Amino acid sequence: xxxxxxxxxxxxxxxxxxxxxxxxxxxxxxxxxxxxxxxxxxxxxxxxxxxxxxxxxxxxxxxxxxxxxxxxxxxxxxxxxxxxxxxxxxxxxxxxxxxxxxxxxxxxxxxxxxxxxxxxxxxxxxxxxxxxxxxxxxxxxxxxxxxxxxxxxxxxxxxxxxxxxxxxxxxxxxxxxxxxxxxxxxxxxxxxxxxxxxxxxxxxxxxxxxxxxxxxxxxxxxxxxxxxxxxxxxxxxxxxxxxxxxxxxxxxxxxxxxxxxxxxxxxxxxxxxxxxxxxxxxxxxxxxxxxxxxxxxxxxxxxxxxxxxxxxxxxxxxxxxxxxxxxxxxxxxxxxxxxxxxxxxxxxxxxxxxxxxxxxxxxxxxxxxxxxxxxxxxxxxxxxxxxxxxxxxxxxxxxxxxxxxxxxxxxxxxxxxxxxxxxxxxxxxxxxxxxxxxxxxxxxxxxxxxxxxxxxxxxxxxxxxxxxxxxxxxxxxxxxxxxxxxxxxxxxxxxxxxxxxxxxxxxxxxxxxxxxxxxxxxxxxxxxxxxxxxxxxxxxxxxxxxxxxxxxxxxxxxxxxxxxxxxxxxxxxxxxxxxxxxxxxxxxxxxxxxxxxxxxxxxxxxxxxxxxxxxxxxxxxxxxxxxxxxxxxxxxxxxxxxxxxxxxxxxxxxxxxxxxxxxxxxxxxxxxxxxxxxxxxxx
Length: 683
Known about the structure:
Layout: E1 12-15, E2 21-29, H1 35-43, E3 49-58, H2 60-72, E4 77-86, H3 88-93, E5 98-101, E6 106-109, H4 123-148, H5 152-160, E7 163-165, H6 167-172, H7 201-210, H8 221-224, E8 227-228, E9 246-247, H9 249-252, H10 255-269, H11 279-289, H12 293-307, H13 317-326, H14 333-348, H15 365-375, H16 385-394, H17 399-417, E10 427-431, E11 437-442, E12 464-469, E13 472-481, H18 482-486, H19 491-516, H20 518-521, H21 549-560, E14 574-579, H22 584-591, E15 610-613, E16 623-627, E17 635-640, E18 647-652, E19 658-671, E20 677-680
Parallel strand pairs: 2-3, 3-4, 4-5, 4-6, 10-17, 14-15
Antiparallel strand pairs: 1-2, 6-7, 8-9, 11-12, 13-19, 14-16, 16-20, 17-19, 18-19
Helix pairs in contact: 1-2, 4-5, 10-11, 14-17, 15-16, 17-19
């Protein structure tokens, strides 16, 4: 959800059979359609309408404005999401009286964002931007909460996590009313989905293949760059005629512009990677022909990519990514680092398709060290490879940071892929320190009492109970040697970091499974002195029961009959079935849908429970039923300061000749309530 201003809005209105109106909103919010055009369309209509929405997002202010316009329309509104409703479009979606998610469509909700004064500005300017984002985030959260019925706190967590929903998940979360399984799937609207942190791989692939660009600026930056097409014959520069933009005569006559161009071309041609495509031999031709730095860079990028068999676009970076969308050029600093990291990581993880750093895919670690030294103004002409690597490691270059970021990508990818199944049942909270976290259990509250003629209201009380758990620190230290870097040995990134990522996920998983199996499988002791699963808690089967529709039915009744601390009904709804691997096949059979000819033979649990398999359980026969996180709170986990997963830190090597890495994770988990879980014990 970008905060910017667009142009050239449009919307399509059609009349259906029977006189019902339909509005199609497709494209970028605030650019392809805005509040004004939607308002104009609605002014011509009355009665029930259908709105077909397909948008990858756009401008936050326009999204909230369109939501307001639609909300004010007095007729019944059915909004049908076709393809995608992401970011600002998801806000528009919430205005429907009925919301349907078409087959194959997706919903994405996240926090609004904005380029922060192009990464420059006073503290006051940055503060005003942050205040503006906070206000719009609060407004958007209210819209999501009102539609879904979820508390604001839960909504803010969903937004902060950049959450993607299938049609069925959107319905379950309260963001939609129906998800018809039939119907033709509509491709998602044109949008560069690489702008989002957790975009599905298919959307990223579509963005790359179709060269989709997000450009929310009105700047005529590209138009102001005066370029002239060369003759149809191929110039001496080595460019195809269609790819050889040159500066205008007017710009070349400006000494400052010409000097900047010559210096830029020289720096590009002398770079280690550019020399692989004979850039230095082409330099004089580039200068004499008036070739722009951007054109030369594009040529080098294309040639390098061809050497590594990657298909790339011959568009400029500014065209391809949108220069204003990143807030800085890719000449150096963080932008250059990001490109290098992207290129190197494609060598570490062959499944990773580079987007930012295609020209660095074939670069060795020692060549990257050279680039970092040159960016820092250090000469590499007379030094050996080993000496240059040492200079890059122990100097003031960005080389150690690049190695750290590559490691972090490898670590995070492996960590996410190895997540515990039980973690899905746990609600994440933030811890500000390592002290015990006191999670408060509150009853549903006292019933309201009739107020007499005198208007006297009677006081009520809310009973509370408390459980605790604490965050602990887990970690490991290892290093990358100077010899490994000189030898271009990437094994540490492709082997060690993934193993540590898997280890971090396994640490969490063992803690989750261990909690459930404490005290001979009855779980941890709670503040009442009783184990989590106990007859007095009403969540323990009297005897081991084989997994079946009947035993699941009994477990569901027990959960539904749970009461709050004050004895009130709280209606706990089971959402997950958790089993060991030995029961996986049976569980799939028990949960499968049956096309029964008689009601008695129908499976009431088909599509009702999500199956989770935990291989770390020691019991082969015990199984569990549990509610969704927070409904009520049962299992909780926390990270220090809300920083999820393992974190990577680096320093110059002391005990090793290279770089030392420290992997650290501050994590804790514990049960805060017994009422959201049920267990059938081991046979």
